[in-house]
Amino acid sequence: MLHIAGNYVAPTRYQSAPQNLMLSWFAWPQVLFTAQVPLLVGLCSGALLVSLVRRWEYWPFLLTLGLFGLCLLGLSVSMFPHVVPNAVTIHEAAAPHASLAFMLVGASVLIPIILAYTGYSYWVFRGKTGHEGYH
C-alpha cells in the first residue's frame, strides 16, 4: 500500500518510523536509560566550550571523541534492534555462535599479544627520537 503526499510516494511501512523513533527514546522504562545520552551530550558540549575558551590542549580532542561516541550511541539507540532500518535485526545479521566463539578466543589471545608488543616497542625506542618529532 502506498501513501501519496504531493509528488512524494512512500510505502506505508515507513510512515510509522517517527512513531517508532519516539517510542524507542521516550517509552517509560526505556527513558531512564535513553535520557542519559542527551544529558551526556549537553555536559560534553558545555565542557568542550569551556575547554576551547580556556585554550586547553588535550581536553577539546578528548571531548570531541566523546561527542562522536555519544552520537554513535544515539544512533544505535534509535535503530535498535535493527541494523538495516525496518529490514534486518541484530539477531538476523549475527554470525553463527560457533564463528563468534572462535573469534572471541582468537581476539582474547591476539589482542594482549599486540598490546604487549606495542608496549615493548615503545619501551625499546623511548628517547631515541629528537624532541622535534618526526617531521
Q: Roughly what fraction of the amino acids lie in strands?
A: 5-15%
Radius of gyration over all CA atoms, rounded: 23 Å
Give the N-to-C terminal Cα separation. 62 Å
**Which regions are unreliable across 5 or more consecutive residues at pLDDT < 50?**
9-15
Strands ordered across the widest β-sheet: 1-2
Give the count of helical stretches: 6
Compute the average pLDDT: 83
Main sheet specs: 2 strands, antiparallel
Can you count the beta strands?
A: 4
- Quaternary arrangement of the chains shown? single chain
Rough outline: flat
Helical residue percent band: 55-70%
Write the element-wise H/E pattern from the N-terminal end onward.
EEHHHHEEHH
Structural class: mainly alpha
Model description:
By secondary structure, the chain is mainly alpha-helical. The protein has six helices and four strands; from the N terminus they run ββααααββαα. The chain is flat and about 60 Å long.
Please give the structural blueprint.
Blueprint: E1 2-5, E2 8-11, H1 17-26, H2 28-34, H3 36-53, H4 59-79, E3 82-84, E4 88-89, H5 90-93, H6 97-124
Antiparallel strand pairs: 1-2, 3-4
Helix pairs in contact: 3-4
